[in-house]
Write a structure and sequence with these properties.
The chain is α/β, with parallel strands linked by helices and about 500 residues long. It has five domains: about 120 residues, Tetrapyrrole methylase, N-terminal domain (Cobalt-precorrin-4 Transmethylase, domain 1), CATH 3.40.1010; about 100 residues, Methyltransferase, Cobalt-precorrin-4 Transmethylase, Domain 2, CATH 3.30.950.10; about 80 residues, Orthogonal Bundle (Helix Hairpins); about 70 residues, MazG-like (Helix Hairpins, Orthogonal Bundle), CATH 1.10.287; about 50 residues, no CATH class. The protein has 18 helices and ten strands. Strands 3-2-4-1-5 form a five-stranded parallel β-sheet, sandwiched between helices. Strands 6-7-10-8-9 form a five-stranded mixed β-sheet, covered by helices on one side. The termini are far apart.
Length: about 500
């Protein structure tokens, strides 16, 4: 070894005989041997090889977080190396589950230091040997103290450094989000060492005993295909198969245009499920809507335009870019501030949209268009201060409709009536917005009430042996009022 050199040495899984000869020589040649922790069986045997290790466990005791621990470990090793030749011993293999080593590799060369890795047998080799794992199609390795968003259930997994029962409980709850409680797991303590213990368990019982320490790992075989939760990749594969030459004749026949009505229908069925407040129906309808998205993405992929991955990448990028208050260093404390920032980002990322009103689909229902443009105009300050302005505007527009209708028949035109009636509806939507009432929901509610009362009128007329058709208007008005009163009483109950 030369001055200013760091050799990161793997101490193996726990047995001295699994320590490589290269690792022993690297530590014997060093001016100073630092080890991440003394809580490893090999460390106690190093003096018998003429090696005097310096444990760094005190860093764990004074650091507040794991991130700080890794940072301080790297800083200590670099500081020692600037004064001589350092060997830094870590459990297992230097590149498996060692965050401090990753920091060292990133920083050492920029400090003018030479760094190299000297492996021994890793804990992975020992754990796989201990559980007798057969040939694996793939393997994921996780640090139990830094778990990702979700595990890859189609592959076997090894969770390292499950050092206590509390951490095992947290790991169990995280795994139960994607695996059934009876999924087999194997807890391996001191893998490859003389005191090795192997415990097969169901996942639900993972944290059921005091058998955890710093040398404990957990092995999970892959989840059987029939028990896995579906993924977007799998669904995209199914859609590609349906569109393949040997696939479904109906699916193969479809185009973007032919599927247009299906997409609109599924959107409305999702809305209906929301209106019914039916979670199970909503789950089903969201699946049907997702099918349409997958279908259009597959058609685009076949045309060479884009694929589902491009759609997901674009969505992820947009979510991150438009939420700097979550993923960046900006602080926002209200929903209004978030909306204002969203619009600013949209203008910056889409400069071709010069108007503050932006764009919207031409097929959007008229009520929704009115609501949208009013809301966007309000974001730049073009709005009434409260509901009294829109209320007065509704009265004015109502008077103008009446005035147009009362013109002499030769002067009155259908075009002007439509114009004034449209202004009245637009003003009514504006009033709804200020009252925080969804105009679509309000109108649907009015339609539902009308239909219910009309059916009640028909029922009452039939009970009297009569039909509404041909009934004088004053009698129908009386039936309407009775039906309305009956509905109000039912609502009161």
């Amino acid at each position: 070894m030369t001055r200013g050199e760091i050799r990161v040495v793997g101490l193996g899984p726990g047995a001295l005989e699994l320590l490589s000869w290269g690792a022993i020589r690297a530590m014997q040649d060093a001016d100073r041997v630092l080890v991440r922790t003394a809580q490893h069986p090999v460390v106690a045997e190093l003096p018998g090889l003429g090696i005097q290790p310096v444990p760094l466990d005190e860093i764990y005791e004074r650091a507040g977080t794991l991130e700080e621990v890794y940072r301080l470990l790297a800083e200590r090793v670099i500081a020692e190396a600037e004064g001589g030749r350092v060997a830094y011993g870590v459990p297992g293999h230097p590149t498996v589950g060692e965050a401090s080593v990753a920091l060292l590799l990133a920083q050492a060369q920029s400090r003018g230091l030479t760094i190299s890795l000297v492996p021994s047998l890793s804990a992975l080799d020992a754990v796989l040997a201990a559980v007798g794992a057969e040939a694996l199609e793939g393997l994921c390795v996780y640090d139990a103290q830094a778990l990702p968003a979700r595990p890859e259930v189609a592959l076997a997994g090894i969770y390292l450094q499950v050092e206590d029962r509390l951490l095992a409980g947290e790991l169990k709850l995280w795994l139960l989000e994607n695996y059934p409680g009876d999924h087999p797991v194997t807890v391996v303590t001191a893998a490859g060492a003389p005191g090795q213990v192997v415990r097969p368990l169901p996942l639900a019982g993972l944290d059921g005993g005091e058998w955890f320490d710093h040398l404990t790992s957990v092995f999970l075989p892959p989840l059987a295909a029939g028990r896995r939760r579906a993924t977007l990749d799998q669904l995209a594969g199914l859609m590609a198969r349906l569109r393949a030459p040997e696939g479904c004749p109906w699916d193969r026949k479809q185009t973007h245009a032919s599927l247009r009505h299906c997409l609109l229908e599924e959107c409305h069925e999702v809305l209906e499920a929301l209106d019914r407040n039916d979670p199970m129906l909503l789950r089903e309808e969201l699946g049907d809507l997702l099918l349409q998205i997958l279908f259009h993405a597959q058609l685009a992929a076949e045309a060479g335009d884009f694929d589902l991955g491009d759609v997901l990448d674009g969505l992820q990028r947009k979510l991150v870019e438009r939420h700097p208050h979550v993923f960046g260093d900006i602080s926002l404390d209200s929903a209004e501030a978030v909306l204002h920032q969203w619009e600013q980002i949209k203008r910056r990322t889409k400069p071709e949209r010069e108007s503050a009103l932006g764009e919207w689909p031409a097929t959007l229902p008229a009520l929704a268009q009115a609501w949208l443009v009013q809301k966007r105009a309000a974001r730049v300050g073009f709005d009434w201060p409260d509901h009294t302005g829109p209320l007065q505007k509704v009265r004015e527009e109502s008077d103008e409709v009446l005035a147009e209708w009362q013109r002499p028949e030769g002067e009155r035109t259908q075009e002007r009536l439509e114009h004034e009636a449209g202004d009245l509806l637009f003003a009514a939507v504006n009033l709804c917005r200020h009252l925080r009432v969804d105009p679509e929901q309000a109108l649907l509610g009015a339609v539902t009430r009308f239909v219910r009362r009309f059916h009640e009128m028909e029922r009452r007329a039939a009970a009297a042996g009569r039909e509404l058709a041909g009934m004088p208007l004053d009698e129908m008005d009386a039936l309407w009022e009775d039906a309305k009163e009956g509905g109000a009483q039912s609502a009161g109950r």
